[in-house]
Design goal:
three-stranded mixed β-sheet, 4 helices, alpha+beta, about 190 residues, Nucleoside Triphosphate Pyrophosphohydrolase, globular, 12 strands, about 20% helix
């Protein structure tokens, strides 16, 4: 994160209403802001899981989906996904598929810090191994999608709160993550188009 990086603030309808410095936006009164989640798969349908770095403000050391982040003001969402996957995991991305255009959540840590995001969900398929950036990621592992989703749904896997909410919606798209239907970008909230 650069010292001047800003996130896009949004209203409940998904319209941009301003920006705020990323460095100060997460706290007990975190405003709703634009973000994304991405799920990286290999050609065998395994999902790449990441453990968040121990110095992260929100959910340090917690396992989660492949990569999350915030688009810069005016940055197209697929470019934000590509930028963050390169920065956090050293992955080169050819294609970014929209899956859940209007996913949103609010979660509160034990410390009182709140995450409150309008967070479209994307799929990426890669052929390369991840090279984690220790500033962002503590550890990575590949897991077969069914094993992962069964573990999340059965609550036998500890996972981030946003991922816990996303997985049932992704499971609803079908058994094979490589065959999930791509959503229409027109269904994205206005701030994300």
């Amino acid at each position: 994160m650069t010292p001047h990086e800003h996130v896009v603030l949004v209203d409940s309808e998904g319209n941009a209403i301003g920006t705020a410095p990323k460095a100060v936006v997460h706290g007990p009164d975190t405003p709703l802001h634009l973000a994304f989640s991405s799920y990286v798969f290999d050609r065998q349908g395994r999902v790449l899981l990441t453990r968040r770095a121990s110095h992260k403000i929100t959910w340090p050391d917690v396992w989660t989906n492949s990569c999350c982040g915030h688009p810069l003001p005016g940055e197209p969402m697929p470019e934000a996904v590509t930028r963050r996957l390169s920065h956090e995991l050293g992955l080169r991305v050819a294609k970014v598929d929209l899956l859940l255009p209007r996913f949103s959540y609010r979660a509160v840590m034990d410390s009182g810090i709140v995450e409150h995001e309008l967070c479209p969900v994307y799929r990426v398929v890669v052929a390369d191994d991840a090279v984690p950036n220790p500033d962002e990621v503590g550890e990575v592992r590949w897991m077969p999608w069914k094993e992962f989703s069964d573990g999340v749904l059965g609550r036998s896997l500890e996972i981030s709160p946003w991922c816990r909410e996303q997985v049932p919606q992704l499971v609803g798209l079908g058994a094979d993550p490589l065959d999930w239907p791509v959503a229409d970008p027109a269904a994205l909230p206005a701030a994300a188009r």
